[in-house]
Design goal:
Blueprint lengths: L7 H11 L3 H4 L4 H13 L5 H14 E2 L2 E2 L4
Antiparallel strand pairs: 1-2
Length: 71
């Protein structure tokens, strides 16, 4: 997670690991979410990384079609 801002592949890897994985979604991921939000705040609005970070946040909020965490 500390290299997520350096390597865009790291964000994709985290997304695929947590996507629809109920076991990982029950962990305390507050630290991950805070880091993703702070990193996305530093990125320009028109950057492709901004959308990548927002899609990554969606993974932590949904499991299949169910909403796990409120936005």
């Amino acid at each position: 997670m500390r290299d997520i801002d350096k390597y865009s592949v790291a964000a994709l890897l985290v997304k695929e690991i947590f996507k629809n994985n109920k076991k990982f979604l029950t962990l305390n991921v507050g630290k991950f979410i805070r880091q993703i939000v702070s990193t996305s705040d530093e990125v320009a609005l028109v950057s492709y990384k901004k959308s990548m970070y927002l899609k990554l946040l969606e993974v932590f909020c949904r499991y299949e079609d169910m909403l796990i965490r409120q936005n």
